[in-house]
Design brief:
Arc Repressor Mutant, subunit A, single chain, 2 strands, elongated
Amino acid sequence: MSASTKLSTAVKALSYLAAVSPEPKNSSDISNHTGINASKLRKIFSFLVKSEIVESEKGTNGGFTLRKDPDKINLQEIYCAIEDRKAFHLDVNTGTSGESKNNQKFNIFFLDLFADIQVTIENEMKNITLKSIINKINSN
């Protein structure tokens, strides 16, 4: 699953939990409401539980609930919980033997550029809360 698909899936599922809060919902309930495959939801929720964005209650009446208010959960926090790589990733080698100095300089330039872009992306994502996403979706 691509990073953007995982992120939108997580946000959609978290938005549903926010709507039914504080009632816990299991992966089948969430799947039925969101249309997201229950096994994909369980995998994503395992990361969200580890990152303490949601909690999991076992048992017949168990399920997942948000650990924080939706206005305290930001997009960057969700992304970092479900992804193990940067939002803007560039895979280039610097200093490969046989590579010209000019190519090395270009690679270093782009690594630095993308590192700056990454910081900008992460700062923007910190400013977008789950609550603001829910409000935006509901107003359209």
